[in-house]
Design brief:
single chain; about 650 residues; alpha+beta; five-stranded mixed beta sheet; 20 helices; about 15% strand
Length: about 650
């Protein structure tokens, strides 16, 4: 039964990062500022500075055929009180293959400074300029945005640049803004941070329990507890020392995550782009392969023996509380060959989720607590030591099973890189086929048909090992339909792990969607009321690659297409549509964080509509509604898993019928 428990909890730990989507939030990754330098009596240089959050990229001014809109500085071309001298200069930037659009693009990271020389012909008249821009990270682009500046030059030649909208909101502006607001009911916010942290702490705790069942840690429990209980002058002192020892184990693993907080403050993209960055995914693929070979017993991943020797000497010579700390540190170093790969899984799982270093600290805290608890508990209740199973060959069996699972999860990282780069080396059927091969290998090992270096040839195959082998065999049989081009190929229990159904060796072309789609909210909701159907609001964009993936790879699937066609009215609102609104529909919108946004295009309107009502400005973003103010379930973003998307649509239908 130990192996069955192990298989379950390690699967939970390694899939932790797949359980959290992006929080609903308004993303604002760039801050604009400006200053002015006077060259002579009438010649000035306006300096525009963009402070860009780590992980985000601002587009260059260079025109592109495919990609985000270029940055542009727009002056009034009809004005006669100034003239531009040359073009707006920009820094060199970084030119590379964009992971979203798959083409070579130039962009800026962290900071970008633009300069524009201008000759003032008539001081006293404000000179207005608007910067149009678009920012992307490695997985998405935000809708096009704009920021206004005003250059004021007085008669004596003194100049100043004012950032932001310099006018006043009119009653009409407020009325137009109010018209976009919905009095929403039924909106379900995303998982609260404390709930996420509790889940991650639990998963880290499970990882620590797994580490307890390894040959590097398990035999240390009775030895260490006996040392404290029997070596102390009195029972109370031994109990306190054992509890201190457990506390220091917990503290050491928590402290191991602190360097990532420093890294997070310098470059958070290193921590939160693992799930899409091909280089980092390949790195973790290789690391997991190394972990697997180590668990098979062909070599051990250990820290330098001099480290453990020094810590051991410190523990012996110092004594007291400091000596106990060095004893705990010695355990952490000596057991690294077993705990290191599990910590690597925790690292890869936590850092690929939103939250970065804080989530890692929470997980590491849970991991350290699980390792520390037995030393404290067995010191309080020493009689429990008699119930512990004896060390033996089963500990090596746990390590080898870990090795097979490390191989399986290594393929997930390789698959992530393959999907992003479209290499085509690991389509769904190949991925599942390799998992089947790994499963067969694990089953043969559990039944004693194959052995590894540290296995005892005379070791008997126990009942729990045979049962675990049968469980693995059943799992392999479950995987077999995934190799086919049938309805049974969609393995629901593994949704989100193999590549999507559309990333297949088989022909998955589905032709045109043929769906009736509205592009105006009011018009679409009127059609929904007339048809007696709920509406699906699809916040999308022309330059949104993940939106296209959803339409081509998820909406095109028969089970999704049927529901969308028969049960819903679809309203697709393009947040980057550049078509100008009629002049009587244009207005100024007061941003929540200050400043004013000029609503001039259709895209401006729908982007503002989304942020105003749903506190979200990323695409795709889907909302199921019964009418203008009733949301049927929690909105979702990019959901490439067909089964999850179907469940979400069906959940909305059930709630609609209840209403």
């Amino acid at each position: 039964m130990k192996n069955i428990f192990f298989l379950f909890v390690f699967f939970c730990l390694s899939t932790a990062h797949a359980q959290f989507g992006n929080d609903s939030q308004i993303l604002d990754p760039i801050d604009w500022s400006a200053s002015v330098e006077q060259e002579d009596d009438s010649l000035y240089t306006i300096i525009f500075k963009a402070d860009i959050d780590p992980g985000w990229h601002l587009s260059s001014q260079k025109p592109v055929e495919v990609g985000p809109i270029p940055t542009a500085f727009v002056f009034d071309s009809t004005a006669t009180h100034f003239e531009l001298i040359g073009k707006t200069s920009e820094p060199k930037g970084k030119t590379e293959i964009n992971p979203i659009f798959g083409v070579e693009l130039t962009s800026f990271e962290n900071e970008a400074i633009f300069k524009q020389k201008i000759k003032v012909l008539d001081p006293g008249i404000p000179i207005k300029v608007e910067v149009n821009f678009m920012v992307c990270d490695d997985t998405r682009c935000l809708p096009p945005d704009a920021h206004s500046f005003t250059l004021n030059v007085n008669k004596s030649g003194d100049a100043v640049v004012i950032s932001g909208f310099t006018g006043e909101l009119t009653d009409r502006d407020r009325e137009m803004t109010d018209a976009l607001k919905l009095d929403l009911e039924g909106f379900q916010p995303d998982i609260k941070e404390n709930e996420k942290y509790l889940t991650l702490f639990f998963l880290g705790f499970i990882g620590g329990l797994i580490a307890l069942l390894t040959p590097c840690v398990f035999p240390m429990i009775p030895l260490t507890v006996s040392f404290f209980i029997k070596g102390a002058k009195d029972k109370r002192k031994g109990l306190i020392n054992a509890i201190l020892y457990g506390f220091f184990i917990f503290a050491i693993y928590l402290l191991l995550s602190l360097p990532f907080h420093l890294l997070d403050s310098v470059s958070p993209e290193i921590l939160n782009n693992i799930s899409t960055n091909p280089i980092l995914n390949i790195f973790f693929f290789v690391i997991f392969l190394v972990f697997a070979i180590s668990f098979f017993g062909y070599f051990e991943i250990t820290l330098p023996s001099s480290w453990s020797n020094k810590m051991d000497k410190k523990a012996s010579s110092v004594g007291g509380i400091i000596g106990i700390f060095f004893m705990a540190l010695t355990l952490a170093i000596v057991s690294f060959s077993c705990t290191g790969p599990i910590l690597g899984s925790l690292l890869g799982g936590s850092l690929s989720s939103d939250g970065g270093a804080m989530q890692l600290s929470i997980g590491m805290g849970g991991f350290g607590l699980a390792l520390a608890l037995p030393f404290a508990l067995f010191a309080v209740f020493p009689n429990w030591l008699d119930s512990l199973p004896k060390s033996g060959g089963w500990l090596n069996t746990v390590k080898v099973c870990l090795g097979f699972l490390e191989l399986a999860f290594a393929l997930k990282f390789l698959s992530n890189a393959d999907l992003v780069m479209h290499w085509g080396i690991l389509p769904r059927e190949v991925f599942i086929g390799l998992w089947i091969a790994i499963g067969i290998g694990l089953a043969l090992y559990l039944f004693g048909k194959i052995r590894f270096p540290h296995d005892n040839p005379a070791q008997k195959i126990g009942t729990s090992r045979k049962i675990t082998g049968l469980v693995v065999t059943v799992f392999v049989l479950y995987l077999l339909p995934g190799l086919t081009n049938t309805a049974y190929a969609n393995l629901k229990l593994l949704s989100g792990f193999p590549p999507p159904l559309s990333y297949s060796l088989y022909d998955k072309e589905s032709g045109l969607l043929g769906l009736n789609i509205y592009h105006d909210f009011d018009e679409g909701m009127a059609a929904a009321r007339e048809a007696g159907k709920p509406a699906m609001i699809d916040f999308t964009g022309w330059a949104c690659v993940n939106c296209r993936k959803m339409e081509e790879q998820v909406w095109s699937q028969p089970e999704v297409h049927k529901i969308l066609e028969e049960e819903y009215i679809i309203i697709s609102l393009y947040v980057d549509d550049g078509e100008l609104l009629p002049e009587d529909k244009q207005f100024n919108f007061l941003r929540p964080k200050g400043g004013v946004k000029e609503i001039e295009t259709i895209g401006d309107k729908w982007a503002t509509f989304q942020t105003l009502n749903f506190s979200n400005n990323s695409q795709p973003f889907y909302v199921l509604m019964e009418n203008e103010n009733t949301i049927l379930n929690k909105p979702v973003g990019y959901t490439p898993d067909v089964n999850k998307y179907v469940d979400w649509l069906e959940d909305g239908l059930r709630n609609f019928k209840k209403e």
